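Postdoc handover notes: sequence design on the structure in folder B. Input tokens:
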């Protein structure tokens, strides 16, 4: 019914507008008329998508425009039929095929290969189902073309389809996407100012007209045969890109975990021997410790023996740049990895291997739990840590399911068809102009994926809350345990009471100001950081109860800060002037407890990049070496001043095979990340 409404209204608008153009005698100004016609087509399509976000309405708007134009100006269509000639069927079907291939196959595969580890669908299923859907669309388009028996109508359909194809290609591969990364199965909840939306919409009109006039010029200059050749070449390039992507090293496959079989308690500690524990909290912004301690002063006592290093800095603003120095030291800063000229995937595996190999060689039972990012996969491929005395595993899904049953928390399981629909929805967003992107973003069928994202927050909370049930204690050999958790990365469904919710956290503007935040995004992250620290303290209380806390060296750290509408209102940031998100994004967490350390948590003003974390952890075994660099000791070697920060894309696929794509290089001089004057930037 909505598609019918769109068709009728669109038809009336186009007929009326075309009649007015003819009445004003603007036929002498062909360029002006063409601009108005193209703008009208774009406007009708955009408004229809805002009216109802569905394939039916966008098809109805296109047909309404073509038919309305034909009814109001039949002579022009007759001339168009002669001009386009016998290539109109091929142009129409190949253009429809190209659009469908982009939306349903090419972009979904790229998204799948750079997924956040949440896509429960295999590549074969994605290809088989979506390629079938592409052909269904092409056959349906052919049927509609068959119904349009008038040559002028068919020519108009071919021209509109060809223009839409090249426009979609432009938005897919040339222009930036303009929306934040996915977290869970939903976009990051970053604010989109109205002025930005309006500016993008204005730019849409410029891009649409530019593509239309370029296509018009090429058509007039070279003819339909050349345009058909261009469409064919573009389709071939897309198909080749799909084949290349599908045949790559399967980067990012959600199902490729290959973990070492372990018992139900993957973490183990010795009562009689030294232990080392590394808790890696993804995207925990270090300055949140100050507000967490202010809100919950008892945390300072529960984190007994710890020292917090607020003056820390990461090597990048996202995990792909920040995690490798955190695990492997300064030799795995992006600038150092680029200098080696080797496969980034191989170097990434090296960084993940440094700590497990060193501790295992020193006789430690080594347990690596949830190694996200290992092998350039989001979930982490445990097959890369297949050594004696090293046990790599992922926390079983049953842990969070059991917790959900106990709490009555609904778990929204998604079928493979849901994941395929999500990828296709993302494909449609990628090829659409920005005004249409906004319509899909605001009115698209995202709810199943938002429901699933609340489950992602619940899962990460449940895994942190269940660490004591995943831990065993004995009197055997020393143990090294490393566990990764991304709760600080999934803050949107965490309540102020530190319990996960089925709806996103929202507060009034007055309450937001009272809590000291300028955006809901900022509050959500600060609140979840506090909750994560509380859950870690709960686990540490358990280690005290079972008698292994004192002899355990513990490091709690993150790989980077937060990118988004977050300002640092901590005392140090305000004093030094480095409150802007540029600095917040590279402000990680580093908290350290040496074995035997006691007393309430202390604060050290020593400069401590998170690239020092491997050095700190290795102190308990007399230091570590890098077996991939001729047994070079893991050390600072003066590389902390100036400290290089590399801003790179967050996706695996957007890097070069043997180098990070550095978009901007920041340098920190003077060892004080809170001093704004110590920061400088340069082109890569």
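Designed sequence:
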């Amino acid at each position: 019914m909505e598609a019918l409404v769109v068709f009728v209204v669109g038809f009336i608008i186009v007929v009326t507008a075309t009649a007015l153009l003819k009445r004003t005698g603007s036929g002498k100004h062909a360029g002006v008329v063409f601009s108005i016609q193209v703008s009208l087509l774009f406007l009708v399509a955009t408004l229809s998508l805002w009216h109802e976000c569905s394939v039916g309405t966008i098809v109805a708007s296109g047909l309404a425009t073509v038919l309305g134009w034909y009814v109001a100006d039949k002579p022009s269509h007759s001339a168009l039929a002669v001009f386009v000639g016998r290539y109109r069927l091929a142009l129409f079907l190949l253009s429809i095929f190209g659009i469908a291939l982009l939306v349903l196959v090419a972009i979904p595969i790229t998204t799948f290969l750079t997924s956040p580890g949440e896509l429960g669908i295999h590549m074969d299923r994605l290809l088989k189902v979506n390629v079938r859907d592409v052909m269904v669309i092409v056959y349906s388009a052919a049927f509609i073309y068959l119904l349009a028996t008038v040559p002028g109508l068919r020519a108009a359909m071919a021209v509109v389809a060809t223009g839409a194809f090249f426009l979609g290609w432009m938005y897919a591969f040339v222009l930036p996407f303009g929306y934040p990364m996915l977290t869970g199965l939903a976009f990051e909840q970053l604010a989109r100012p109205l002025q930005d939306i309006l500016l993008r919409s204005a730019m849409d009109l410029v891009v649409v007209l530019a593509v239309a006039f370029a296509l018009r010029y090429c058509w007039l200059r070279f003819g339909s045969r050349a345009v058909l050749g261009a469409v064919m070449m573009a389709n071939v390039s897309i198909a080749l890109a799909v084949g290349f992507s599908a045949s790559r090293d399967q980067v990012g496959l959600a199902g490729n975990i290959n973990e070492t079989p372990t018992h139900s308690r993957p973490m183990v500690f010795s009562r009689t021997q030294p232990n080392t524990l590394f808790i890696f909290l993804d995207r925990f912004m270090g300055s949140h410790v100050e507000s967490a301690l202010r809100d919950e002063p008892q945390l300072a006592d529960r984190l007994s023996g710890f020292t917090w290093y607020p003056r820390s800095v990461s090597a990048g603003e996202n995990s792909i740049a920040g995690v490798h120095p955190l695990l492997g030291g300064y030799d795995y800063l992006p600038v150092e990895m680029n200098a080696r000229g080797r496969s980034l995937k191989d170097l990434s595996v090296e960084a993940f291997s440094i700590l497990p190999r060193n501790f295992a060689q020193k006789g430690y039972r080594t347990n690596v739990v949830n190694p996200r990012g290992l092998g350039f996969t989001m979930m982490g491929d445990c097959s890369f840590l297949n050594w004696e005395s090293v046990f790599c595993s992922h926390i079983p899904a049953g842990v969070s399911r059991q917790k959900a049953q106990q709490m009555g928390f609904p778990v929204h399981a998604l079928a493979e068809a849901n994941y395929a629909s999500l990828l296709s929805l993302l494909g449609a967003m990628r090829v659409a102009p920005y005004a249409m992107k906004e319509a899909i973003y605001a009115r698209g069928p995202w709810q199943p994926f938002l429901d699933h994202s609340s489950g992602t927050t619940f899962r990460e909370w449940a895994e942190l809350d269940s660490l004591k049930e995943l831990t065993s204690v004995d009197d055997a050999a020393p143990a090294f345990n490393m566990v990764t958790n991304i709760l600080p990365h999934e803050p949107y469904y965490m309540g102020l009471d530190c319990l996960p919710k089925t709806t996103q956290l929202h507060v009034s503007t007055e309450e937001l100001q009272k809590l000291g935040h300028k955006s809901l995004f900022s509050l959500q992250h600060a609140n979840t950081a506090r909750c994560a620290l509380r859950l870690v303290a709960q686990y540490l209380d358990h280690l005290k109860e079972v008698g292994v806390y004192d002899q355990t060296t513990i490091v709690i750290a993150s790989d980077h800060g937060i990118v988004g509408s977050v300002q640092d209102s901590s005392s140090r940031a305000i004093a030094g002037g480095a409150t802007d998100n540029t600095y917040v994004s590279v402000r990680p967490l580093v908290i350290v407890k040496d074995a035997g350390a006691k007393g309430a948590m202390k604060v050290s003003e020593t400069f401590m990049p998170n690239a020092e974390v491997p050095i700190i952890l290795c102190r308990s075994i007399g230091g570590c070496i890098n077996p991939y660099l001729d047994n070079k000791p893991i050390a600072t070697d003066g590389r902390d001043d100036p400290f290089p920060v590399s801003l790179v894309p967050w996706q695996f696929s957007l890097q070069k095979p043997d180098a990070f794509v550095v978009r901007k290089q920041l340098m920190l001089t003077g060892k004080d990340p809170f001093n704004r004057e110590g920061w400088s930037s340069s082109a890569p």
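Context for whoever picks this up: The chain has three domains: 1-72, 83-248+396-465, 267-394+476-682. Don't rerun without checking with the PI first.
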